[in-house]
Design goal:
Blueprint (H helix, E strand, L loop, with lengths): L1 H25 L4 H12 L2 E12 L5 E9 L9 E6 L6 H12 L20 E5 L3 E7 L13 E8 L5 E8 L3 E3 L4 E11 L17 E10 L2 E14 L7
Amino acid sequence: MEAMARLRLLCLLSAVVSVLASSALRAETPAPLQAAIGNWSAGKDDWALTQRVRTLSDDGRVTEERLERYDPSLPDIQRWHLLEVDGHEPTEAQRQSLERRKNLKPHKRGNKPLEEFLDLPQAVATSETARAVVYTIGVRPGVIPLTQTEKLVLLVTVGRESHAIERVTAVLHDSMRVALGLARITGVDFDLSFDPALAPDEPAAEDNPASGTARVSMSKFGVRMEYEWSDFRRVTGYAAPAK
């Protein structure tokens, strides 16, 4: 009887697991979010931006500050430009050193499908108004190697009429270990809004910047760093001439 009871229990557990697995496989991205993601991905544009990098001492003093411009409408060898070092125009040696180092790196395209990074089927509508829906979305586990992505959550606002992403904010629940602990993200201040009046693939959208804040604080090999991004512009990504 005891063996039979265990067999029934195993059969019941197997049935429950099958039902849960089936539900997980049937999970689909909410329709409004899917439409907004599709609209976002429809264009072939990318973002140009200005990046400010600060290195801090243990007591919070800025020991080095660089201002750089990234423009993916230019050929890969020209996409990064050094604008300032510690508030001054860079020397030719400084400019050549940084631009050579950054522009010779393999270009990781920023316009990969969002589905590769975000766990869209598990998105949850956490608040709604007559005008928009806010979805809470996690990052897919393992999508960024050696990174604790479960601690980062995005809040994405989708307009009911625009069918577009109108705002993205990020929430970091705890410091996030990167690269087996060699670096640690300690703070995220990410809140960007987009004008839904222009579709991403419209030429006029090139003059339509995103507004808001994008800042990350981290410890990299024991050195405190701050990255801040601003002056976002939509541009048409560079396409090398056909050979």
